[in-house]
Amino acid sequence: MKYVAEYRNADLVRGVIDEIARTVTRNWVLMEICGGQTHAIVRHGIDQLLPPEIELVHGPGCPVCVTPLEQIDRALAIAATPDVIFCSYGDMLRVPGSSDDLFSIRAAGGDVRVIYSPLDAVKIAQENPDKKVVFFAIGFETTAPANVMSVVQAKMLGVTNYSILVSHVRVPPALHVILGSPHNRVQGFLLAGHVCAVMGYWEYAPIATQYGVPMAITGFEPLDIVQGILENVKQLEAGKTDVVNAYPRAVTFDGNKPAQKMIDTVFIECDRKWRGIGEIPMSGWELRSEFDAFNAEKRFDVRAITTDESPLCIAGEILQGLKKPHDCAAFGKECTPESPLGATMVSNEGACAAYYKYGRGLE
Fold this sequence. Notes:
- Helix content is 40%, strand content 19%.
- By secondary structure, the protein is of the alpha/beta class.
- Strands 4-3-5-6-11-10 form a six-stranded mixed sheet, sandwiched between helices. Strands 2-1-7-8-9 form a five-stranded parallel sheet.
C-alpha cells in the first residue's frame, strides 16, 4: 500500500539508522512532540535500535494528557447534568477526574456518547431538540478545524441546543516553556507532522533560532521517524539550527490556509493551563465572544471549578522530557491502565501507557 508499506520497510529503516550511527559523534537528546510518535517509537523499538549516543525523550503532544484536571471535572459536572447528552472521543472516557471519569457518569445514568466527529454531535443535537448536547473539544491544532466547523454548522443551521467545552492547546508556546526551563535537556525536536499539515511550520524557525535548537517535521511511520532523527543529528553535528521538512508528502511551509482562516474566525488565543505543567500564556484557544451561545463553560457556569493534581504523579516532568515513565515510583504499581493516577497512563497517546503496554521499565 503506497505510503504505508515502504515507510515500514525494515531494510530502509535499518539503512537510515546505520547512517545515523555513521554521522553521530556526541551524545544528543531529542524530543518527539507527538504522543502518536511516542507510541510508534516504543512499539517498533526505534529507541532501542538507535546508537547509544541518541536519547529520545517524550513531549507534551498528547491532547488528552495535557487537558487539565479541572477541565475534566467541568466535563464530569456537565455530563452529570439532567437533560444533557455529553459527546466525546472514546479516549477521554477513562481519563480520571478528581473522583470519577466519564465511564462512571455513564454507569450512573448520564447520557455519555462516543462519537468520531464533532459534526456527529451537531446531528445528535438536531435529533434531540429537547436535550442540551455538549461536545468535549480537546486537541492541538490538528483537531481545531473540525471542532470549529461544528460551531459554524450549528450556527448556520440554527441548532441552539449545541455547545462545546473547549480545551485546545497550541504547540509553539509549549516549546518556549520547555526550552526556557533551566532544567531543559532537549537539544533537537521531532515536530508533529499532522499539526504542521494544518498550521505549516513558519512559526518554528524563530524558536529554533532563539534557542539554537534544530527541528525536523516528522511523520508517524518508522521510516518517517528515523529520517527526522537523522535530520536532527546532521544539524547538531554541523552546528546548524534549521527547521527541516522531513514530511513533505503532507506538510507545506504555509500549511492549510483555509483551515487557519476558519480557526481564526471562531477561536481566539488565550492563556491555557496544561495538566502537570501549569499555565502557559497564549498557549490555547477559546471561543470568540460572538460565539458565546456555543460556549459550554458559560452555558453551564462551571468555570469556578478548581482541583489539585495527585502528588504521586510526575506526568508534568515526563511531558517536559525531564523524566521517563519508569522514573515514577507509582509506575506499574499504584498507577496502571486499570487504575491510572494521570492521563499519561490512560490515554492512547500517553507515554506512560506506551511504556506499560510494551513492557518498558516493568522488568
